[in-house]
Automatic annotation (TrEMBL):
Name of the protein in question: Synaptotagmin-like protein 2
Broad class of where this protein is predominantly found: membrane
Domain of life: Eukaryota
Originating organism: Illadopsis cleaveri
Residue intervals passing through the bilayer: none
Cellular compartment(s): Cell membrane
Alphabetical list of SMART domains matching this protein: C2
């Protein structure tokens, strides 16, 4: 039951169609070929280290330049990711929430082989003070992995509306585990941790490294806090489609993780045949299911796309990504060949 990366080939039809009454959106795309070749095997529980340690930083707002500044000084006593080598390669990342797409992320440099990194870097946001005061600052620490399998080391979230702006001094703050408070609503179904990457055609040099067409890589890491349907827990797996194609050739799934409401999958899928323009019209749908002999029960899902309601010029109901899902997809589109990590709440689809 090792986790493999399956490669699926797509050829999207780029001409507009006039859908007939009762037709399905899956008619808009066809799958040219499917390859079941194993690209790689991801073993181990990536990103599962417990948050520990502290981070020292200061906040300031430059009225003259209308700039929000996060002075990241250092961290102490971070978790060790590679226990065999006793190393972590940490960096600090910040977001302004809830509008991650508009404001974007900021990152410090990576400090190698240390659990006590010193940065002394300033992360800057050009933003009006009135807008800033309705935001939250999410500051997180990550271990940088050369293959993109970054590990979460801890975070802190600050409501900027209640921040004391006269406090410009560096202060220490404890790093906390991933916060589920933002999605612990009435319809809370759990949270999926995943990474995605887009490899444009011709971006990696000569063949065989260079894909003849673009590739979308989807790495499903784990899911936290699933609904428990039985006293014994839940036997869960994840399905993946790239809409508008809903054929069996598009369908991929992970293995089933039994009796666990916090399953770890570490399963990667690679879809090729993606031209850059397809990213505006396609949507990656990931759904989590409880496995039973007679029928599977839907637990929740996410849809990664631009959420425009349109696909190849035709109105579709599945192009309904949330603001957070749209921001995640947009970040991937803007950062070619770079793994983008995310933590997204599951929802009903």
């Amino acid at each position: 039951e090792s986790d493999t990366a399956s490669e699926i080939s797509f050829q999207f039809n780029r001409h507009k169609k006039s859908p007939s009454i009762g037709s399905h959106s899956s008619d808009m795309a066809s799958v040219s070929s499917v390859s079941g070749s194993v690209l790689s095997v991801y073993s181990g529980d990536f990103g599962s280290v417990d948050a520990q340690g502290t981070v020292e930083f200061a906040l300031d707002y430059d009225e003259k330049n209308r700039e929000f500044q996060v002075h990241v000084s250092q961290c102490k006593d971070l978790a060790v990711v590679d226990e065999k080598k006793g190393r972590s390669d940490p960096y600090v990342k910040t977001y302004l929430l809830p509008d991650k797409a508009r404001m974007g992320k900021r990152k410090t440099s990576v400090k190698k082989r240390t659990v006590n990194p010193i940065y002394n870097e300033v992360l800057r946001y050009k933003i009006e003070k009135m807008v800033l005061l309705i935001q939250k600052l999410n500051l997180s620490v990550w271990h940088n992995d050369p293959l993109g399998r970054n590990s979460f080391l801890g975070e802190i979230e600050i409501d900027l509306a209640s921040w004391d702006w006269s406090n410009r001094k560096l202060n220490w703050y404890p790093l906390k585990p991933r916060s589920l408070s933002a999605v612990n609503g009435a319809d809370h179904r759990g949270v999926m941790s995943l990474s995605i990457k887009y490899v444009p055609p011709g971006s990696l040099g000569k063949w065989p490294k260079n894909p003849p067409s673009g590739e979308v890589h989807i790495w499903v890491k784990d899911v936290k806090d699933l609904l428990q349907l039985r006293p014994s827990g839940v036997d869960s797996f994840v399905k993946c489609y790239v809409l508008p194609d809903t054929s069996k050739k598009s369908y991929q799934k992970t293995r089933v993780i039994k009796r666990d409401t916090n399953p770890v999958f570490n399963h990667t899928i690679v879809y090729d045949g993606f031209h850059t323009e397809d990213l505006k019209d396609a949507c990656v749908e990931l759904t989590v299911w409880d496995h039973e002999k007679l029928t599977n029960h839907f637990l929740g899902g996410i849809r990664l796309g631009l959420g425009t309601g349109l696909s190849y010029g035709i109105s579709v109901d599945w192009m309904d990504s949330t603001q957070e899902e749209v921001a995640f997809w947009q970040e991937m589109m803007l950062a070619a060949n770079e793994w983008i990590e995310g933590l997204l709440p599951l929802r009903s689809l």
